[in-house]
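Q: what sequence does this backbone want?
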């Protein structure tokens, strides 16, 4: 067993291939070996100085994990770093612009949400077993307007148990405790 381990370690140092170096000076290596009858590629990093994994760029992490087939080139790394710097600068400009607009009161308030509420009575009528009118029975039916009368009724003294109307003609219903 010791011979096998020693042979493996010696083989690792002899046949390893340096694939690249990043800006922090970390070296990246690859080794193709036979494992259980299949050729497998092992990838690893040797850190320069302290073993700090936060110094490994994202592109190299992807390569180490096998998410990339080819190692990143120095040109690709330089291009991506320049892009990241442009994004940082754009974020700073946008933050400054938003802060100036906020101070000047120019920034409009955005409203999010529905402008119109649905007619709940017509919705509940789709489910005959859950309608409030059917639970009370025909003798206790409210004297309120029907769906056709919703738009024409302006009587504020009448309060239905169900909300009526939509948009500007919406009138909330009254809450009744469960019995």
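A:
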């Amino acid at each position: 067993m010791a011979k096998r381990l020693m042979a493996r370690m010696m083989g690792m140092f002899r046949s390893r291939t340096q694939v690249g170096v990043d800006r922090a000076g970390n070296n990246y290596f690859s080794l193709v070996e036979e494992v259980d009858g299949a050729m497998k590629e092992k990838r690893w990093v040797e850190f320069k100085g302290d073993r700090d994994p936060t110094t490994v760029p994202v592109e190299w992490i992807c390569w180490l994990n096998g998410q990339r087939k080819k190692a990143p080139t120095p040109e690709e790394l330089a291009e991506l770093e320049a892009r990241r710097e442009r994004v940082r600068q754009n974020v700073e400009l946008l933050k400054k612009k938003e802060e100036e607009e906020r101070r000047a009161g120019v920034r409009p308030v955005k409203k999010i949400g529905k402008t119109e509420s649905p007619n709940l009575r017509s919705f509940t009528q789709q489910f005959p077993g859950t309608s409030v009118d059917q639970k009370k029975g025909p003798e206790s039916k409210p004297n309120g307007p029907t769906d056709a009368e919703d738009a024409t009724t302006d009587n504020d003294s009448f309060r239905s148990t169900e909300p009526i109307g939509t948009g500007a003609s919406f009138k909330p219903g009254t809450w009744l405790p469960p019995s």
